[in-house]
Amino acid sequence: MHIAMLSPIAWRTPPRHYGPWESVASLLTEGLVARGHDVTLFATSDSQTSGTLNAVCPRGYEEDRSLIPKVWECLHISELFEHADVYDMIHNQFDFLPLTYTGLTTTPVVTTIHGFSSPGILPVYKKYNGKAFYVSISDADRSPDLDYIKTIHHGIDIKQFDFQSQLDDTLLFFGRIHNDKGARQAIEIARACNKKLILAGIIQDQAYYNKYVAPHIDNDKVIYAGSVGPVKRNRLLGKACALLHPIQFDEPFGLSVIESMACGTPVIAFNGQQRGRGY
To answer: Which residue, 98, 74, 97, 2, is CA-closest to 41?
Structure first.
């Protein structure tokens, strides 16, 4: 089967550090190629794949702020759909925008819905409901207004994660520095149990970071490690005595949770107001 895999272009595929959707697109591409499928990955020019790479955007626009996101997203998506008829299937990892191109081809388009950033994006999904094929990443993250062909939970490459028998007396927060992920609450939890806390992840909300996180960073009890790549991620997850996941929203499917458990590290998460229900 000749498959086109449409990855986002915010980051490289696979990402150097952060980039969960790009990571999933990469894992699926490599898995399909290993099973004998002919896969063309549509991603940034610096992306890496054992399939065929088709790229028009030189770098991830989050890594090169001189790139205007909407300009390169339009060029990226149109590059695929202008050649869509040569593929047996298109797998869209790019959210809702590519759906608006699906009327240009008879090639089946499967869209993995990685979550709803806002109810305001639902009209696009509703318009193409029944025309495109939707896959949910957890039963909990399904919209009652949409039809789905299947729930497929995220997978990880288990070889990237090592079990660590010798643990540090340290708690870990691993995720976006944003109210949704609960960085502020992680600091409060660590302080309450008098444990060292390492925070790792991109700063998605600078004002939130400045107000609730930065004042507590002392490089002793609270350390900010920045956005870490696979090697350091493996070490941090494996050495922590627990991963703190005090989410403030209904998490569709948090990769850090299964990555942590792959290292044998327990996860402490909120379960109120149906939080964490996607696991």
So the answer is: 2
- Cα–Cα distances (Å) from 65 to 59, 61, 149, 214, 215, in that order, read 10, 6, 37, 24, 27
Residue 18 to residue 2: CA distance in whole angstroms: 29
Please state the pTM of the whole predicted model: 0.84
In this prediction, residue 173 carries a pLDDT of 96
The CATH topology of domain 2-151 is Rossmann fold (3.40.50)
Q: Phi then psi for 84, rounded to 5 degrees?
A: -65, -30
What is the Cα–Cα distance from 6 to 73, expressed in whole angstroms?
A: 11
Question: Residue 161 phi/psi, 5° resolution?
Answer: -130, 130
How confident is the model at residue 223, as a pLDDT? 96
The strand pair at 242-245 and 267-269 is best described as parallel
Confidence at residue 276, expressed as pLDDT on a 0 to 100 scale:
39
- Give tens-digit pLDDT for 7-19: 999 999 999 988 9
Neighbouring CB atoms inside 10 A of 90's CB total 24
Asked if pLDDT for residue 87 goes beyond 60, the answer is: yes
CATH of 158-274, one of 3.40.50.300, 3.40.50.2000, 3.40.50.2300, 3.60.21.10: 3.40.50.2000
Q: What is the mean pLDDT of residues 45-69?
A: 97
| HSE of 145, CA atoms in CB hemisphere, 13 A | 10
